[in-house]
């Protein structure tokens, strides 16, 4: 099973569209930042995995994603799922460097694992070039956490392409990216921002950051199939 954790509803719609190229009938997406729904889904994991191979969850910004959602997912799943659970975290850089954000993510994971209120036995933590791997003592299964970033923000990436696609004046980018999306959705998509976001996947396919995520995800699905066979 693969759990994709991203920043918000735009990200959830976007990556739902991206990952449907791989598993069109097996993507389960939660675009609202209702952590309880994600917890219920993971709590019903053994049933869910018979129907879906990818869960996409959009939260409420980078801080909550790293400091609240990821630790909660780790606590709710580590040692409770007897197989590999892949967790992919995708965050906006927002003027930060990838290395800084990755260190922040690792620090939060280690802090969570050392919390005796969350784990009676200290989990084992390891790091490879591609992911962070976490095991729980005397239990089967493990978590593999991968981290990717989007330059600046997904909204800005979409807004920039949407302006070019619809021949809007560049000056519109002086507005916030969220406002640009609202205006273009109003003008061209009958106010439907989801349609705009899903359309933007076609505009952004050749961007290096998205190609990196797609390439890694292809490899991840191959590994998942090998582990299950």
Short description:
This protein has 229 residues and is an alpha/beta fold. 51% of the residues lie in helices and 17% in strands. Strand 6 and strand 7 (142-150) form a beta hairpin.
Uncertain segments of ≥5 residues (pLDDT<50)? none
Widest sheet, order of strands: 2-3-1-4-7-6-5
Helix % is: 40-55%
The pLDDT mean sits at: 92
Rounded to an integer in angstroms, the radius of gyration calculated over CA atoms is 18 Å
In CATH's first tier, which class of the largest domain applies? Alpha Beta
Question: Total number of helical segments?
Answer: 9
General shape: globular
How many domains? The number is: 2
Query: H/E element string?
Result: EHEHHEHEHEEEHHHH
Q: How would you describe this protein?
A:
The protein has 2 domains: 2-152 and 205-228, Rossmann fold (3-Layer(aba) Sandwich); 154-204, no CATH class. It has helices spanning 9-19, 35-43, 45-51, 62-77, 98-113, 154-165, 177-188, 193-204, 208-228; strands at residues 2-6, 27-30, 54-58, 84-92, 124-127, 132-135, 142-150. The model has no long low-confidence stretch (mean pLDDT 92). 32% of the residues are buried. It is globular. Helix 6 (154-165) packs across helix 7 (177-188). The longest helix is centred in the last third of the chain and has 21 residues, at 208-228. By secondary structure, it is of the alpha/beta class.
